[in-house]
Amino acid sequence: MNDRDHYLLGVRPEIPAARITDDMTAEEQFQNRTLRPVIKFQNNLLIAAFKNYIRKYKNSFFDLSLEKRLTYIENAIQKDIKFRNSLKGMIIGQFTITEYETYIRHSSALNKRMMGMVIVRLKDQIQLFEMEALV
Predict the structure, then answer these.
(1) What's the CA gap between 114 and 86, in Å, rounded?
(2) Is 67 within 8 Å of 105 (Cβ atoms)?
(3) Model's pTM, two decimal places?
């Protein structure tokens, strides 16, 4: 293992609930072994990126009801390819070389899992996107 891989693995949070078993698919194992810790580690950056996204689009997010704000989060990530790719880069950039090699073999399925997890994480922290929190 090279120094970069060692450092990356060393800073990731441990997630005891993210169990890995032999009967899981390769994608499920990757999700629990890699995606969950990386997304948790990158949480503050993902929050900052979405706050910037809201500002970039003239704060229209704040005119919406709670239900529509949740839909806005989903649409921003699913339909804005540039934003989606930016978020993916924030996560993929934290992979070790071995993890990246696994990722490229299963990228389609893992991208869906990755973005689904980011959507849930942002929705669960929607209170951080209030107008006064952005100032």
Answers:
(1) 13
(2) no
(3) 0.90
- Alpha carbons 86 and 121: distance in angstroms, whole number: 16
**pLDDT bracket for residue 69 (50, 70, 90):** very high
Output the CA–CA distances (angstroms, integers) from residue 10 to 6, 27, 94, 96, 97, in the order listed: 6, 22, 11, 11, 15
Q: For residues 38, 43, 41 and 81, what is the CA-based torsion angle, rounded to 10 degrees?
A: 30
What is the rounded CA–CA span in Å between residue 113 and residue 120? 11
SS (HEC) of 58-97 = CCHHHHCCHHHHHHHHHHHHHHCHHHHHHHHHHHHCCCCH
CB-based contacts of 114: which residues, under 8 Å, 6+ apart?
Answer: 35, 39, 88, 91
* Cα→Cα distances 65→20, 60, 96, 133, Å: 38, 11, 40, 17
d(CA 76, CA 9): 30
The Cα 29–Cα 65 span in angstroms is 37
Given a cut of 70, whether residue 62 has pLDDT beyond it is yes
